[in-house]
Structure formats: C-alpha cells, structure tokens
Amino acid sequence: MADLDTLVSLSKRRGFIFPSSEIYGGLGAVYDYGPLGVELKRNVRERWWNAMVREHDNVVGLDAAVLMHPTTWKASGHVDAFSDPLIDDKASGRRYRADQLVEGAIDKLEKKGRTDNADALRQRYVAALNADDAAAALGEIIQDEEIKSPDSGAFDWTEVRQFNLMFETATGALAEEASKLYLRPETAQGIFVHFKDVAETARQQVPFGIAQVGKAFRNEIVARQFIFRMREFEQMEMQYFVKPGDQMEAYAEWSEKRMAWHVANGIRPEKLRWHEHEKLAHYADAAQDVQYEFPFGWNEIEGVHSRTDFDLSRHQEFSGKKLEYFDPQTQERYVPFVVETSVGLDRTILMVLADAYREEEVTNGDKAESRTVLKFHPALAPFTAAVFPLVKKGGMPEAAHKVEADLRRQFNVTYDEKGAVGRRYRRQDEIGTPFAITIDGDTLENGTVTVRDRDSMEQETIPAENVRRYLEDQIDAWTPGA
C-alpha cells in the first residue's frame, strides 16, 4: 500500500484532486476534484445511489438545501453538543483531538503485546467518554499516562477544551438585521424535517427510507490526512424509518448490506472491519462503523446507527408540528424509529485510491520494469477504456476515432496517439483505465482490434463491432485480483 504522500502526489499529478485556491497558497483542509477525480467521484456517487434507491422500491431520494432554519440545529442537539475535545501541544503549537491521542496510546500498548494494560486503559477511556465532564476526564488520562505529542515528542499540554464544529453565517439585507444561520454539519436533518412530506407525496409506508447525497460543512480544527477530514465534504446518507421495536432487525440488515457494498466495489475484505462505538451518541441505541485500514491506520468510512425516535420527536417538539405516522395496517399512530447509514463520499474516494494503488514488477520482453497501476473496479474507473491507433497514419487514427465514438455512447473513454504504445499503456495503468483498445493494420484489413486488460496485461483480439458488448461482459464478470 502506498503511503499518504504518494497518494497525494499521484492525485495532483494525474488530475484527481488539487489543493483548493493553490495559486493563493491554498486553503487548509479544502480540496478540488480535477478531471479524473470528478469522474471517479461521480461513479462512486451513482453506484451508491443505484444500490440504495434504484435497487429498493421503498427507498426514495431527496435533495435538501444547505441552509436550514436555525431552530433545526437547536432541536437536533448540534448547537449544544456538536463539539470535539481538543488539546494543544505548547511546544509545537499544534492542536489534537484528545480522544484520538488516548486511542493512539491504546493501540501502541496492543502492538507491544501489553494487552492487560491496553484493556485497563480502554475501560478508563470509555468511562471518560461517558463522564459528565468528558474533556476533563480525557485530560486526566493524557496526564496520568504521560501521552506525548505525536509530532514534537513533548509532554507539555494545555487543558482539554470543547470546540463547536459548526460554521456560522448570516442572512439579511443589513448586518444589524441579520439572522444567524449555520452551514449544515450533516445532511440528515433535511431528511427528518421532510419525513411527512416525503411519506405522503411518494406514497410510502413504514418501513421506508429517504436517501440524500450532498455537501456538509464542519469547522474542523484538526483537519489533516488529505481528503479524509475536510471542512467542506460530501455525505451519502439514508434514513430508514421503522416501527418502534423493529429497529434492531433493520440495523442488522443494513449493516450487512453496507459492508457488502464496499466489498462489491473491489475493496479488499481484509482491509475492512466493524468497529463498535465506545460511546453512543445522545440519539442512538446502537452504533457501529465500517473502518478501512488506511496508510495512517484504521479509520471510519461509514457509520450505521440506530437513532431511535430522537430526531423526529425533537423536531415535533420544537416545531409544534405532528410528525407521527399512522399505520393503516394496525391503525396505530407512532413516531417512527430510524436506522441511518451515513458514508463519507470523499473518504470513500480516498479508500478507493488507497486500495487500488499498486507498484508492480513486470516483464517487457526480456526486460524487467516497474509499473504503477490503480486497480479500480472497472465501474468506478474515470475512463472505462483508452483507444489507441498503433501509428498516426495509414487510416489508423480515423478507425480509432470510429471505435471511440461508438464506445462513447455508453462509456467514458479517452483517445491517445502520442508516444510508443508501451508508454501509453503505462499512462493508462497509472490512472486506472481497465481496458486499452489498439487499432492496427489488422483493423484495416479484417476489422479486428486488440483489447488489453489492465490487471493481467493479457491481450485479446476481437471484432471491432463487438467491443462495446465485450466491455459490458468484462465489467460484469470482474473480480478483484492481487
């Protein structure tokens, strides 16, 4: 697996991801998606939408606004409780999340084989998270365990303080008339406030789900690790409304489906795991995360939460509007419980890049050479295929453009006629293009083309008119390799 610096370098060099406003020195923890990145992101987003909405007749979509009435965030608990426990290293001036420092200390003890010490520290950590003053309790652990700064190595900390993560803005023609608003820190609340609207207009009966993909904003004080933790990011969330008492069955069902989705995207199963929450959020009665083993360790990709009836009940209380559901089968009225699946789109992109990256030794004739390759699932790759004329003459470019035009009716493809074919293969390997179609003399004589597979590097000759169907079949049959 590549280290993070390698992924950052590749992403910029090949046009996946750029630092935002880089000509002005950039803006911390904000990134822009380049030509290849925007295609990869679109493919991941659409694959999620198909899995969640198109494949379920009781899940429908929504696209709520970023700005919401400020009382929304009072009702949801974000105004009072959406914060991180942060601590400063006086030596370096760097800021850290206190909970992550303790988790790092636990991991170090486990790696050293000191399982008893790790278990004891974990028990104390869980107690601290659930304490009335969690910040102070975490600070005591850091002092007692003499946890040092990861960067400076110093043991000279400030007190742990809670920082609210919401971005504030304002609306109004004049500043003195402005009303304070927030950029939404999550997309879920837009779903909850429209629960009745969607149920009635989409004619859905419980159980049913509402899915949404959209931007969210958090004033992350500790924002590092490339696109893993950003201030402006995209979420893919689905809230599944169930009858009270049925939430654990739905929770288990959606947990299984969501893990299977990541594996179906080509992510290696051994790099994925479930992680139970040490502390449940104020709204949850069960919660676990899908974690991936990044170059910087195991970290959350997706959360599956049983949120009880907290959200609908709170919005009912604060708005004064009934958000009950009338069950026509049982003639009951109740506030539904909710099971949530929430996956970070940007984190998923980083996982896909990290998992696909390979550096391989290959043979080229009698010569050994290395290649960098991104072994994306073909359905996720920015380009499905590259089309090459063997040379830039003799009618080959014209024949290649004809094949390219046919493929563009269904796939995103690229055309490349510059340099030796071997070099063109390597360029496409590095950006993850799964198939390369070469037009040569045989194409002009008998209508055949050569298709090269990115992963195996094997080549097959097929009729040019069959290329589209061939790619369809290969994508459907694709399985992850080594």
Distance between the termini: 12 Å
Given helix and strand content, the structural type is alpha+beta
Helix count, DSSP H or I runs of 4 or more residues = 16
Q: Which stretches of 5+ consecutive residues score pLDDT under 50?
A: none
Round the mean pLDDT to the nearest integer and report it: 92
What is the helical fraction, as a range of percent?
25-40%
User: Which strand order spans the largest sheet, edge to edge or round the barrel?
Assistant: 3-9-10-16-13-12-11
Give a quick account of the main beta sheet: strands, pairing sense, barrel closure.
Answer: 7 strands, mixed
Q: Quote the beta fraction.
A: 25-35%
Instruction: Give the overall silhouette.
Output: globular
Rg calc: 26 Å
Q: Using DSSP, what is the number of strands?
A: 23
Can you put this structure into words, describing what you see?
The protein is α+β, with helices and mostly antiparallel strands and 482 residues long. The chain has helices spanning 4-13, 35-54, 71-76, 78-81, 98-111, 115-129, 134-144, 188-193, 195-201, 247-264, 310-319, 345-356, 396-408, 421-431, 441-446, 467-477; strands at residues 17-19, 31-33, 59-61, 83-88, 95-97, 161-164, 167-171, 179-183, 208-217, 232-242, 272-276, 286-294, 297-308, 325-327, 332-334, 337-344, 357-364, 367-374, 385-389, 413-415, 435-439, 448-453, 459-463. The strands form 7 sheets. The chain has a 7-stranded mixed beta sheet with strand order 3-9-10-16-13-12-11, with helices on both faces. It has a 5-stranded mixed beta sheet with strand order 20-19-21-22-23, sandwiched between helices. Helix 13 links the parallel strand 19 (385-389) and strand 20. The mean pLDDT is 92.
